[in-house]
Specification:
With 486 residues, the protein is mainly alpha-helical. It has a domain at 1-80. It has helices at residues 10-19, 44-56, 58-65, 68-71, 76-80, 103-106, 111-118, 132-140, 151-161, 206-210, 212-216, 226-232, 234-241, 265-269, 300-304, 312-323, 329-363, 375-396, 400-432, 436-450, 456-459, 464-485; strands spanning 90-92, 95-97, 288-289, 296-297. The strands form 2 sheets. A two-stranded antiparallel sheet has the order 1-2. A two-stranded antiparallel sheet has the order 3-4. Strand 1 (90-92) and strand 2 form a beta hairpin. Helix 18 packs antiparallel against helix 19 and helix 19 packs antiparallel against helix 20. It is globular, with a radius of gyration of 27 Å. The chain starts with 9 loop residues before the first helix and ends with a helix.
Length: 486
């Protein structure tokens, strides 16, 4: 079979090209179209690639054959071609190619998508290499046994966040850094990111990218269980119950027009609405950052640095518009009041006090400079990095069990039953070692925190009228329950 295809009829070319554009509905600001350069026929170089890979890698060939790239005569060479001077360029069957197709390569046709991605938090995911998480994977959990890297980081953190892809002296890609489809991958050509983190090669299916499983490769587990949270929520329940009505292969896929059963991750964070275009900046509609120990509005860090970015109010307005495709404005407004109240509760009652306690121990030189060598450091990390994130994300995505039992309950247990006793133990140890003045200051910090109204129950200083009102409410509930049961 000859893989060199005859030129497509002009009409068919036009139809195929049209499928690559998002069609604007009446009253909607037309989304900027996804641009893919169609060719009249498959190039000679790509035809040669396909002829070989059809036999050697039949699945790759089949996936490409189902893709829009195939329909537009975009083949292997158009994506993998490289300049001989590129750091990762290799000679292959007489052609100069690169194994890695980077966002810089994709931008040849998809310029706006790559520009949007470059502004997103996804593009910064590779910065984990300097974080506490990576320290755990490289040092605490691992050892530098794979070409100077830790297998725990190589197979774990970096597969989501991205590796620094290194080219060895012989031109091969370092197996400690490749294969890797981490969303913030640092590529040999200087670009950042991996489009294939979401758009699985070589089909690059819209249906696959729009399903929650596409995000679930990275957004699940004890510290960021967004996929599990989504599945618990009414949104997730509705999606799986009505997936056959989601119209996932629609070219424009506008919520409220092309589907109404449920939103997916893509719906809320990326996809077109009646008023908004598709965006590849996944934070464009997010108003809080729920990742750090203490949550802040998404633009707070930039504003502190004197940078002008899209405000959290504008982002929330855009997300609310997505919500209002299915819900009334009053319902959306009330949801945001509930969500904000949970984030503020977590911040004020546990996160800010917890950070104050840890900062005090460091200031008073009661902790070593080594991370995670003392029990209270693990306790604090669990509190904000695991339980605190679960509670906040649960509230953001309407998963009550993650707010309560996997979230705030465990935050409270971690704070009162572990962190406070460990703090006092650390202070007492320092006092016995001669740091009496520092111990007095540290105890005063804890005393001030526990004397706040929200901790009064624990310190035993809760006002009698508060206890009385709670008992009356409990008695009224019991009486109502008993009467209903008769």
């Amino acid at each position: 079979m000859n893989t060199q295809r005859l030129p497509l009829p002009a009409v068919l070319c036009t139809v195929l090209a049209a499928l690559l554009f998002f069609i604007a509905s009446p009253g909607m600001a037309a989304p900027k179209p996804m641009v893919l350069k169609p060719f009249k026929e498959l190039s000679k170089e790509s035809a040669e690639c396909a002829a070989c890979h059809r036999d050697k890698n039949p699945s790759i060939y089949a996936q490409w054959g189902r893709s829009k790239h195939y329909g537009a005569n975009v083949g292997c060479y158009e994506c993998h071609q490289a300049d001989p001077s590129d750091p990762d360029a290799i000679k292959h069957e007489g052609q100069s190619i690169a194994v890695i197709v980077s966002p810089k390569d994709c931008a040849t046709c998809h310029e706006s998508e790559v520009d949007q991605f470059a502004k997103s938090h996804h593009a910064k995911a590779g910065q984990i290499i300097g974080s506490l998480d990576n320290f755990l994977a490289e040092v605490v959990e691992g050892a530098l046994t794979l070409n100077g890297e830790s297998p725990a980081a190589v197979n774990g953190c970096w597969q989501c966040h991205g590796s620094v892809v290194k080219v060895m002296d012989n031109g091969d890609l370092d197996p400690a850094t490749w294969p890797n489809t981490g969303i913030g991958r640092l590529n040999p050509d200087g670009s950042v990111g991996a489009c294939t983190a979401c758009h699985q090669r070589h089909e690059f299916s819209m249906v696959q990218a729009r399903r929650p499983e596409a995000c679930g490769k990275c957004h699940l587990g004890p510290d960021h269980p967004q996929k599990e949270i989504y599945e618990e929520s009414k949104h997730g329940i509705n999606f799986y119950a009505n997936v056959d009505r989601m119209n996932l292969d629609s070219a424009k896929w506008i919520v409220g027009e092309d589907y109404d059963a449920a939103p997916t991750c893509a719906t809320c964070h990326m996809s077109a609405t009646r008023e908004q275009a598709v965006t590849h900046d996944v934070g464009d509609r997010i108003s809080w950052t729920l990742r750090p120990a203490i949550s802040e509005k998404i633009d707070a860090k930039a504003k502190a640095q004197g940078k002008q970015i899209k405000s959290w109010q504008e982002r929330r307005k855009d997300m609310a518009e997505v919500c209002q495709s299915c819900h009334t404005k009053s319902m959306v407004d009330n949801f945001y009041q509930q969500f904000d109240s949970l984030v503020n509760l977590y911040n004020d009652k546990f996160a800010s006090p917890g950070k104050t306690l840890m900062d005090t121990l460091k200031k008073e030189k009661m902790l070593t400079d080594i991370g995670f060598d003392e029990e209270i450091e693990w306790t604090w990390f669990y509190l904000w990095h695991h339980e605190g994130r679960r509670a906040r994300h649960g509230a953001a995505m309407q998963a009550p069990d993650y707010v309560q039992w996997h979230g705030m309950f465990e935050v409270a247990e971690r704070f009162y039953v572990e962190m406070v006793p460990q703090y006092l133990e650390t202070v007492e140890k320092a006092e016995h070692a001669g740091n009496t003045e520092g111990a007095a200051r540290a105890r005063k910090v804890l005393e001030e925190i526990l004397n706040r109204p929200e901790h009064a129950w624990f310190s035993g200083n809760e006002p009698e009228e508060v206890k009385k009102a709670r008992k009356e409410a409990q008695d009224a509930f019991k009486a109502r329950y008993l009467n209903d049961a008769k």
